[in-house]
Amino acid sequence: MSQQLNRSRSCSFSDVDELMGTVQLAVHIPTFLLGLLLNVLAIRGFSTFLKKRWPNYAATSIYMINLAVFDLLLVLSLPFKMAMSNVWAPHPSVCTFVECVYFVSMYGSVFTICFISLDRFLVIRYPFLVSHLRSPRKIFGICCTIWVLVWAGSTPIYSFHGKVEKYTCFHNMSDGTWSPQVFFPLEVFGFLLPLGVMGFCSSRSIHILVRRQGLTEDCVQQKACIWTIAASLAVFVVSFLPVHLGFFLQFLVRNGFIVECRAKQNISLFLQLSMCFSNINCCLDVFCYYFVIKEFRTDIMAHQPSRVQLVRQDTMTSRI
């Protein structure tokens, strides 16, 4: 047993860290540039809808702006994450702040996407009952609550490194960070619960819309809505499922369930790769923005009078 413990402590991760340094450069730089551009454009686009189409598209626009702000925050944290992951932390408070911003933006996106999915399901399933619940003020209040919750939930980050003297940001976490008291609430409330809510709402919404396709005239709008829901669910699963699987595997490592050096190295590589590629989520959300804007424009065109109707209206007006 003591020999296994000694081998575990002497297990080197230098090759993994060296490889990840190259991967981060290849992934984070394009993600930063593209994510910065796309999310600024998204905020600008939905702000325009919010101003010009108030209050018809206010609820969805506020949610989308909130999601874009979280994604933009994650994008802005990437250069600091990339730089500070490879050097000793200059000061604990600086490292804590960067880690807070990164994880707050990640879980802020998780909860915002979850509420968007829930909101859309309620509108599709109970359109008349929830109309009074979707006022701009209430949606804005929900978004503010998300910000409060994710910042309050970031308190364990302040003790990520415990009493470790030398460490790099996002590495060398203390044993307390991987304790069941910290890990399981994070895994359940930060991912599994939102995943369950989103999976249920998305599947039910798509089922309802598919059944309605032959019964209503707005077939194009319904197809756009289906693509929006499917894209949101796909982006969510691809972005966050591997990361939280990696967290679970690392939890097993840090609590002594996995002690073989090669397995620990592979798990460390998988976790860092999944976190690295999950950052692309801030660019993948653009597909959700695209389908939502397309849905908005389809709905606007559907409610605009045709040229024939305008000519008839002008004719009637001139006669009067």
Topology:
Blueprint (H helix, E strand, L loop, with lengths): L1 H8 L4 H39 L5 H27 L7 H34 L10 H17 L27 H33 L6 H36 L6 H18 L2 H23 L3 H13 L1
Helix pairs in contact: 2-3, 2-8, 2-9, 3-4, 3-5, 3-9, 4-5, 4-6, 6-7, 7-8, 7-9
In sequence order, what are the helices and strands, one letter per element?
A: HHHHHHHHHH
Largest β-sheet summary: none
Low-confidence stretches: 1-8, 303-320
The first-level CATH class is given as Mainly Alpha
What is the count of DSSP helices, taking H or I runs of 4+ residues?
10
Shape field: elongated
The first-to-last residue Cα distance is: 98 Å
What is the fold-level CATH name, i.e. the topology? Answer: Rhopdopsin 7-helix transmembrane proteins
Strand content of the residues, in percent? Answer: under 5%
Number of strands: 0
The CATH architecture is Up-down Bundle
- Radius of gyration, whole Å: 24 Å
Pairing-aware structural class of the strands and helices?
mainly alpha
Structure description:
It is a multi-pass membrane protein. GO terms for molecular function: cannabinoid receptor activity. Residues 38-289 form the G-protein coupled receptors family 1 profile domain. This is G-protein coupled receptor 55. It is found in: Cell membrane. It is a single chain. With 320 residues, this protein is mostly helical. It has one domain (16-303): Up-down Bundle (Rhopdopsin 7-helix transmembrane proteins). It is built from ten helices and no strands. The chain has helices spanning 2-9, 14-52, 58-84, 92-125, 136-152, 180-212, 219-254, 261-278, 281-303, 307-319. Helix 2 (14-52) packs antiparallel against helix 3, helix 3 (58-84) packs parallel to helix 5 and helix 4 (92-125) packs antiparallel against helix 5 (136-152). It starts with a helix and ends with a helix.
